[in-house]
Amino acid sequence: MSVQIIANKEHNGLELYFAVKPEQKIIDSLKAAFFRWHNLKKCWFAKNTEKNQAVVKGLFPNAEVSAEAIPLSVKEHIKSNKYDVKVGDIFYISWGYDQTNVNFFQVIELVGNVSVRIKEISDEHVRSNCSMSGYVKPVRNKFIGGIFIKDKDKGDLKQVQMSSWGDGSVYIKISDYRASITAEETTHFTSSWA
Predict the structure, then answer these.
(1) CA-based, 20 to 30 A from 49: which of 22, 31, 164, 183?
(2) Are residue 59 and residue 97 in the same domain, yes or no?
(3) pTM of the full predicted structure?
(4) How many Å apart are CA 14 and CA 17, to the nearest integer?
(5) Dihedral of CA 47/11/123/40: which sign?
């Protein structure tokens, strides 16, 4: 049985991620130890106590606990939606009046055939042309609060739409902006002349 065990320091929790649904006896053992199913993250979780560590060690004696964030590959194998959007895909908006701001959003869940749940992610500067402009790229799985996402914990539900420009591109609406899908290439930004 393939399991990844994460020690979530932020919530003082243990999270168990399975590549496939575990056997019923494992589920029953987790429930008996008061582990609960997290429907958004698709994992079993409980507080990180010595008792819960012992339960996990008893069920999975050879598994190691990791402090790393869970990669989304556990959910990526499920499917893509009608527009071929997948968990882990990144959308971005470029906006501003006196300057060009860039914000990135990562798909964390597919909901039905045309909707996705997204969270805002951080970016990093790749290079600068001068002190007033440069290029940024998204940092996958580095979720931030941001200003565009209302539900910071669960992420926001958005409907994927096909562009009417006839180029086959898709987008989601974020505030008054169209967020386009990106292949994590760098994106240009400029700063205001303040």
Answers:
(1) 22
(2) no
(3) 0.57
(4) 10
(5) positive
- Count of beta carbons in the 10 Å neighbourhood of residue 160: 23
- Are residue 154 and residue 62 in the same domain, yes or no? no
Q: Which phi and psi (to 5°) does residue 53 adopt?
A: -65, -40
Each as own residue / partner, the long-range contacts of residues 57-62 (CB below 8 Å, 24 or more positions apart, any chain) are 59/26, 59/29, 59/30, 60/1, 60/3, 60/5
How far is C-alpha 149 from the chain's CA centre?
13
Q: In angstroms, how far is the first alpha carbon of the chain from the final one?
A: 57
Q: Is residue 75 part of a domain?
A: no
Do 120 and 56 fall into the same domain?
no
Contacts of 13 (CB under 8 A, 6+ apart): 7, 45, 46, 47, 48
Q: What is the pLDDT of residues 51-85, one digit of tens each?
A: 998 998 888 887 776 665 444 443 444 456 788 88
pLDDT digit string (tens) for 168-194?
789 999 988 998 888 666 666 665 444
Distance CA 106, CA 24 (A): 32
Number of domains in the chain: 2
Q: Which domain holds residue 58?
A: 3-70
